[in-house]
């Protein structure tokens, strides 16, 4: 990934000899790491929804399957995308373990694959026109244009690397997020790094290694063979690509849009390769109308959308099978479901016809797909109802421990009232996530959600994140590994 | 950052200086030729030496610019184009300097009634050179103006062809000149035409290089 995607950002600049490889490598590495650590979380969350891979063996296998797919597709000369490979591989894991595929998250991700090249094409089109107009009006000397382009390439390259780190770190390390063993650390008492951020730092360093060792050759290929661009066009391409990566990764932009009542852009890992291709097509359109579109390239991209996730999914599925049965590695933690009387009572409040379910009271299901299949074939519940039943019948044993709370929960994030309420529950054991959240909401208004409105979206979302943090924290130290499930749902 | 901009500006100034030198030499050439045709040989020789000095000056400036562009790895995309442009502009200047030296060595004799036309031919050719310099300048700074100057270069080159041909036809139909005289006059007409030809060569190159930069 370091080799491949960094090449998309600095490839044209290095190949046109506008920027030295050393300079490019240093800047790219530095900003990829910064971007990954500071704002990598946004896109990673969406990926986490798709499948919370909860055992390290599984994360490893999924990442390996995706990496192999990328290597293989690159060899075939297809514009390969790490994003698509990883999504395919995660779906392979979902299928293997019986984890239910989150269709909203999936459609969110897939739709951005189509949108991101189009968007970057539009950006490139207008940026190109703007640059050309400016050059015409300002009448800058060739040598100065050269100088400014050089600075521009480095500056925008840095921005691009930052956006790349923020957006695509999820591809590399996203699958490890629910399963990583890191705790929060304080660096010199100033910088606080969460476990996820440490994970992303590690990923960023790995990418940096990739940039140093492998990317020179790829950069040359990208810059020379695929698109022969003038330095200014290269600048436009990189800028358009970086903007696209940025808007799909920036949590602050999302927050801004939400607080102003505008539709938010989903934070999703998008493919930098395809953004580049989109931008090049945009420039082609700006330059010479529809003639410039190479339909062969478009066809290749469309194939990539299908072929990459598909082959990564298949590969991941079989790799997991081998991992589990040949190498005897645990690739997932089973998540059981139970229809207990407690669950039935709670479901009644959600307007589910529990009479139907009374007959199966006390029955356990080993995974979500079995339960879903059972509910549908036996009782004919709708998808929405099944979703609700699944949510409340999921078994996660949570033990509230105020010592752990003190150590793990950030007092700057959780309010004192919230922490106090939590402390009062010390030693309580909950069988379901909803039991904990219901109890907390009953005990304190500080744990309650506000009415749904644009103003409250951010507050509610923050609260939801806090709940997720609780689920994560109090399950982690669960003694019985059978019931352990490190989900962030 | 600022020191880099400063350096870049200095290099731009060098390129301008190079083009100025071509312009100066071509004007000195025109003046020198007028003195020659009027028989003021002392003034003519002075101008001839001046043109020679300007020519070697221009060579030095050109080498310096070329070295810096290569050493500092500037304009990687247009580097070859710019160097070719500088070399070819220098060729025009060389043609001017060579021609005036030939005048000084051979001292060709023109019949009185032809002198006006010879002067006209020199004017037109130098006009072409001046427009060529303007074309090259706009290639660096103002691409939209390239076309206007280029059209003028073409026009003057064409004009110099016509004037030259007319002179040659007149010369060879005359009875009052020896063949050796006629041949010498023809040679000098060709020299003068060549100046415009070389200017046009540069113009043609700029046309292509401009297209490359527009896209």
How would you sum up this structure, described in words?
- The complex is a heterodimer of chains A (489) and B (215).
- Chain A has 489 residues and is mainly α.
- Chain A has three domains: 2-51 and 102-293, no CATH class; 337-393; 398-483, no CATH class.
- Helix content of chain A is 68%, strand content 3%.
- In chain A, the strands form three sheets. Chain A has a two-stranded antiparallel ribbon with strand order 1-2.
- In chain A, strand 1 (185-187) and strand 2 form a beta hairpin.
- In chain A, helix 1 (2-15) crosses helix 8 (195-226) and helix 9 (231-247) crosses helix 11 (272-288).
- The longest helix of chain A has 36 residues, at 103-138.
- The model of chain A is unreliable at 477-489 (pLDDT under 50).
- Chain B has 215 residues and is mainly α.
- Chain B has one domain: Phosphate transport system protein phou homolog 2, domain 2 (Methane Monooxygenase Hydroxylase, Chain G, domain 1).
- Helices cover 90% and strands 0% of the residues of chain B.
- Chain B contains six helices and no strands.
- In chain B, helix 1 packs antiparallel against helix 4 (112-141) and helix 4 packs parallel to helix 6.
- The longest helix of chain B is centred in the first third of the chain and has 37 residues, at 2-38.
- Chain B is elongated and about 70 Å long.
- Classes of the chains: A mainly alpha (489), B mainly alpha (215).
């Amino acid at each position: 990934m370091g080799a491949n995607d960094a090449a998309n950002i600095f490839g044209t600049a290095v190949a046109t000899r506008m920027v030295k490889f050393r300079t490019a490598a240093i800047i790219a590495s530095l900003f990829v790491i910064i971007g990954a650590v500071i704002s990598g979380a946004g896109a990673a969350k969406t990926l986490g929804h798709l499948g919370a891979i909860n055992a390290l063996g599984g994360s490893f296998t999924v990442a390996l399957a995706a990496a192999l797919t990328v290597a293989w597709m690159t060899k075939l000369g297809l514009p390969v995308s790490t994003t698509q490979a990883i999504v395919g591989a995660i779906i392979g894991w979902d299928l293997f373990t019986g984890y239910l595929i989150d269709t909203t998250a999936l459609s969110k991700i897939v739709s951005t694959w189509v949108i991101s090249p189009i968007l970057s094409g539009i950006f490139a089109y207008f940026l190109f026109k703007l640059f050309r107009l400016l050059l015409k009006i300002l009448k800058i000397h060739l040598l100065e244009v050269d100088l400014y382009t050089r600075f521009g390439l480095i500056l925008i390259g840095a921005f691009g690397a930052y956006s790349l780190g923020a957006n695509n770190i999820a591809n590399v390390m996203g699958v490890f997020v629910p399963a990583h063993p890191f705790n929060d650390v304080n660096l010199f008492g100033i910088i606080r790094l969460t476990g996820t951020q440490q994970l992303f730092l590690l990923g960023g360093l790995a990418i940096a290694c990739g940039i140093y060792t492998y990317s020179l050759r790829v950069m040359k290929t990208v810059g020379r063979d695929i698109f022969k661009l003038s330095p200014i066009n290269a600048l436009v391409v990189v800028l358009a690509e970086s903007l696209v990566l940025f808007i799909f990764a920036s949590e602050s932009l999302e927050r801004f849009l939400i607080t102003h009542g505008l539709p938010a852009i989903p934070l999703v890992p998008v493919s930098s390769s395809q953004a580049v291709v989109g931008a090049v097509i945009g420039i082609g359109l700006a330059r010479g109308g529809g003639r410039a579109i190479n339909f062969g390239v478009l066809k290749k991209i469309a194939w990539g959308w299908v072929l990459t996730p598909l082959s990564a999914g298949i590969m991941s599925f079989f790799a997991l099978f081998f991992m589990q049965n040949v190498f005897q590695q645990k690739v997932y933690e089973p998540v059981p479901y139970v229809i207990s009387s407690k669950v039935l009572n709670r479901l009644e409040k959600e307007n589910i016809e529990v009479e139907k379910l009374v007959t199966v009271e006390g029955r356990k299901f080993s995974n979500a797909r079995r339960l879903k299949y059972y509910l549908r074939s036996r009782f004919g519940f709708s998808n929405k109802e099944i979703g609700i039943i699944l949510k409340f019948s999921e078994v996660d044993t949570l033990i509230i421990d105020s010592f752990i709370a003190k150590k793990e929960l950030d007092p700057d994030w959780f309010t004192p009232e919230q922490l106090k309420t939590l402390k009062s529950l010390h030693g309580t054991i909950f069988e379901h996530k909803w039991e904990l959240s219901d109890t907390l909401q009953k005990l304190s208004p500080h744990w309650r959600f506000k009415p749904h409105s644009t103003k409250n979206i951010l507050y509610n979302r923050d609260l939801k994140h806090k709940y997720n943090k609780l689920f994560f924290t109090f399950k982690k130290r669960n003694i019985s590994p059978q019931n352990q499930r490190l989900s962030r749902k | 950052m600022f020191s880099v901009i400063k350096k870049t500006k200095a290099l731009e100034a060098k390129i301008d200086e190079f083009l100025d030198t071509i312009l100066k030499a071509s004007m000195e050439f025109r003046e020198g030729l007028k003195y020659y045709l009027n028989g003021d040989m002392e003034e003519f020789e002075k101008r001839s030496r001046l043109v020679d000095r300007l020519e070697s000056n221009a060579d030095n400036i050109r080498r310096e610019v070329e070295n810096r562009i290569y050493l500092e790895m500037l304009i990687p995309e247009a580097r070859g184009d710019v160097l070719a442009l500088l070399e070819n502009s220098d060729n025009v200047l060389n043609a001017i300097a060579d021609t005036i030296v030939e005048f000084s060595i051979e001292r060709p004799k023109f019949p009185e009634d032809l002198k006006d036309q010879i002067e006209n031919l020199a004017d037109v050719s130098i006009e072409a050179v001046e427009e060529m310099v303007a074309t090259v300048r706009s290639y660096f700074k103002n691409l939209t103006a390239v076309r206007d100057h280029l059209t003028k270069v073409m026009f003057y080159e064409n004009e110099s062809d016509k004037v030259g041909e007319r002179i040659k036809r007149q010369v060879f139909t005359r009875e009052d000149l020896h063949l050796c005289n006629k041949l010498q006059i023809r040679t000098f007409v060709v020299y003068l035409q060549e100046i415009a030809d070389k200017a046009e060569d540069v113009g043609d190159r700029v046309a292509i290089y401009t297209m490359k930069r527009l896209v």
